[in-house]
UniProtKB/TrEMBL annotation, chains A, B:
Protein's UniProt keywords contain Hydrolase: yes
Record-linked InterPro entries: 2-HAD, HAD-like_sf, HAD-SF_hydro_IA, HAD_sf, S-2-haloacid_dehalogenase
Source organism (scientific name): Pseudomonas kuykendallii
Protein name: 2-haloacid dehalogenase
Superkingdom: Bacteria
Matches recorded under Gene3D superfamilies: 1.10.150.750, HAD superfamily/HAD-like
UniProt GO MF annotations: hydrolase activity, acting on acid halide bonds, in C-halide compounds
Alphabetical list of Pfam families matching this protein: Hydrolase
Keywords: Hydrolase
Length: 235, 235
């Protein structure tokens, strides 16, 4: 195994708390009541369906920043929230300012001593550059959906990254907190590691609390993965 | 200006001295007489013509690693040099172990505090990952020809990078030691900075000794560029 690529939203960064904190900051600044938790959850709720429309060809290729904006506009209308264009642009960029989980930076830093470490994300590259800078993520390389003009779980994303790495799929491992992402990668021959992020979706999370497939590794978090790989542990 | 992208071979790394040193090492190990300087210069001589064959459609898309190998095989035959397959693979990877110019790492490190810093290179991504690791180059992002399946000076490479950055060309600057590369970028609306590398082609270099266009900046080297941009100097 030569390279480890990471799902980012939820696996490396804590999008939900980060969005809620930024909604709270905006509420303080504007004096407007903003249901931050609800907005964060509903906004993320639009995530998969909006990409699926692109994946099914019902909408031409659209980067995630623009899908986010379409969902945001709908959400604000549904909630009767009145924000002007500048504020909407600012809110859309909340996704560019996401905090890492506590182990992410240390884990990636340890792993990149021995492996090529990259993103494998449905976010667009310009978004990922901002996230990397904000969260201090020490990527060697960014694999983003807009490089391939496909969204995961389309095979073009997983195999496109392997091809650019010049590696066969079995030399590349996907690390994700989502069993479905790992399933798609495994079917294409990539190695897999599951790390649980039991609070990604908040205190009442019910999905992805544990490994649900025959993954090559299961680790507590990214730092734990680095330690296991050095000690030669398997799952 | 938000992002600075760099030509790599010659601008950021000293390919010629690095190849010659590795040929010398191989000669010591094998006891075989190897004309390292000649081979380095002739190998690089095949570089532009080999990419031009791809650019003109005479050869299907081929990554630089494979173009290098085709040129190497021809070169070894011309010089009557006998290397087996494993040795040829090792020699081809000399391009993965290139040393930076003395200012490159410090300059890129200074620039990335304020700008997105990326490669914009005809090398393939897997090659560039190795060069980055070997030379310690702190890239934010790697733009490589195989992302676009085009070689510079095709417009797809320059505009493709701007598009992935989510920036209009005038917010992106190309830094290169080659006037022709800057010319292509300027024609597409990118900003440009020339830095001379008067020994890139060895002691008798005649080309690209100075700026030959109306570039936005001319700097002594990458570190000097970082200093000029902070002090608000123009060309």
């Amino acid at each position: 195994m030569k390279a480890i690529v990471f799902d980012v939203f939820g696996t490396v960064v804590d999008w939900r708390s980060s969005l809620i904190a930024q909604f709270a900051e905006l509420a303080r600044e504007t004096g407007q009541a903003i249901p931050g938790e609800t907005l964060a959850d509903e906004w993320r709720g639009h995530y998969a369906p909006s990409m699926d429309r692109v994946r099914r060809g019902e909408q031409p290729w659209t980067v995630l920043d623009d899908l986010h904006r379409q969902s945001l506009d709908r959400l604000l209308e549904e909630h009767g929230l009145d924000f002007d264009e500048a504020q909407r642009q600012r809110i859309n960029r909340f996704w560019h300012r996401l905090e890492p989980w506590p182990d992410s930076v240390a884990g990636l830093t340890a792993l990149r001593r021995h492996y090529t470490v990259g993103s494998l994300t449905n976010g667009n590259l310009s978004l990922m550059l901002d996230v990397a800078r904000h969260a201090g993520l020490p990527w060697n390389v960014l694999f983003c959906a807009d490089l391939f003009r496909h969204y995961k779980p389309d095979r073009e994303v997983y195999l496109g990254a392997c091809d650019l790495l010049g590696l066969p799929p079995e030399d590349v491992m996907l690390c994700a907190a989502h069993n479905s992402d790992l399933s798609a990668a495994q079917a294409l021959g990539l190695k897999t590691v599951f790390i649980p992020r039991p609070h990604e979706y908040g205190p009442r999370q019910t999905r992805d609390l544990q490994a649900e497939g025959d993954w090559d590794y299961v680790a507590k978090d990214i730092l734990d993965l680095a330690i296991r790989l050095r000690s030669g542990d398997s799952a």
